[in-house]
Design a protein that fits this description.
This protein has 112 residues and is of the alpha+beta class. Helices cover 21% and strands 20% of the residues. It contains two helices and five strands. A five-stranded antiparallel beta sheet has the order 1-2-3-5-4, with helices on one face. The chain is globular. The chain starts with a helix and ends in an 8-residue tail after the last strand. The protein binds adenosine monophosphate and zinc ion (ZN). The site of adenosine monophosphate has 12 residues, from loops.
Length: 112
């Protein structure tokens, strides 16, 4: 998708510091952080709906693997963090390109 902000960042056509990148996904800081540490783990591929894919476990596994390893590498595994995916209109998803939020740096309120 040409005008998708995360596709543009993936291709380097919009500037954003990639903190980590592998063949499947990359990690950036959220532009409007909801916690002291708010990262986004984003597949390079434009994935709109997980339900369009049969290999959901592979897609999510790769994203969670990147998130867990990155969290471990930056030393927040012991303090803890939250991983969240918004999917579709009812979830409040703003950017229609699959991404995993990683929130940390303070005690997060319960899911309400
Ligand atoms: P969601 O509501 O799950 O779709 O979350 C989209 C997130 O992307 C929001 O937390 C935005 O602050 C964030 N965001 C939107 N544009 C950018 C950008 N250019 N760079 C980094 N984060 C962004
Ligand atoms: Zn996209």
């Amino acid at each position: 998708m040409n005008d998708c902000i995360f596709c543009l960042i993936s291709k380097g056509e919009v500037n954003s510091k990639k903190l980590f990148s592998n063949d499947f996904c990359f990690v950036i800081e959220d532009i409007a952080p909801k916690a002291p540490l708010h990262l986004l783990i984003i597949p390079h591929k434009h994935i709109l709906r997980l339900s369009d894919f049969e290999d959901v476990a592979i897609i999510l596994g790769s994203m969670f693997d990147a998130a867990v390893n990155y969290a471990k590498n930056i030393g927040i595994a012991d303090d803890g963090y939250r991983l969240v995916i918004n999917q579709g209109e009812n979830s409040g998803q703003e950017v229609p390109h699959l991404h995993l939020h990683l929130l940390s740096g303070r005690k997060l309120l319960g899911m309400g």
